């Protein structure tokens, strides 16, 4: 990529919609028009925000904010170990849990990665799902009102990035192929008028 070039991008990690592994079965229905990401909300280049990830879109401002979730493998004080998936290490320093603990360090450890918080997260225990918000929205967070259409893998020289949001899919969403979807996020999606059935099959 040429340095100094200004462009918008939506990059798929694979050549088919739905990401590195197909997430949406059948036809996903998208909200009209694209939405702009805050680049600081996205994973570092080389890592992926996966298709099917919960997002919050503002149809007036035309912005899209991802909501991150991680499955806790183990906990040692303020350090949470997470099993690495196809999307690499999407979590970044500065992200914040709903209970107020901030990510202070992220260490890639091969097939896992370690996330250090400012204090032990209230909800952190083996097998738990932790929700994390980007630094830009802080502890107050945002509510999910759509799912991300396709993988976003940021180019190191990107100056802008657009994303598309899905509000309905006629067949199941393969929940094991994206960020873990919590019951709270499913409730937020329903309250926003979205219609998804989540399947746990591979």
Give a written overview of the molecule.
With 202 residues, this protein is mainly beta. The chain is built from 1 helix and 14 strands. The strands form 3 sheets. The protein has a 7-stranded mixed sheet with strand order 1-12-10-3-4-2-11, with no helix packed on it. Strands 7-8-6-5-9 form a 5-stranded antiparallel sheet, with no helix packed on it. The chain has a two-stranded parallel ribbon with strand order 13-14. It is globular, with a radius of gyration of 16 Å. It starts with 27 loop residues before the first strand and ends with a strand. 38% of the residues are buried. The model is unreliable at 1-8 and 10-18 (pLDDT under 50).
Produce the secondary structure layout.
Elements: E1 28-30, E2 35-37, E3 54-58, E4 63-66, E5 68-76, E6 79-83, E7 103-108, E8 112-117, E9 129-132, E10 146-148, E11 162-163, E12 165-169, E13 173-174, H1 183-191, E14 198-199
Parallel strand pairs: 2-4, 13-14
Antiparallel strand pairs: 1-12, 2-11, 3-4, 3-10, 5-6, 5-9, 6-8, 7-8, 10-12
List keywords for this structure.
single chain; 202 residues; mainly beta; seven-stranded mixed β-sheet; five-stranded antiparallel β-sheet; 1 helix; 14 strands; globular; disordered N terminus
Mean pLDDT: 90
| Percent strand | 25-35%
Strand order of the largest sheet: 1-12-10-3-4-2-11
Structural class: mainly beta
* Tally of DSSP helical segments: 1
Provide the gyration radius in Å.
Answer: 16 Å
Uncertain runs with pLDDT below 50, 5 residues or more? 1-8, 10-18
The total beta strand count reads 14
Order of helices and strands: EEEEEEEEEEEEEHE
Major β-sheet profile:
7 strands, mixed
| Tertiary shape | globular
Helical percentage: under 10%
Compute the separation of the termini in Å. 35 Å
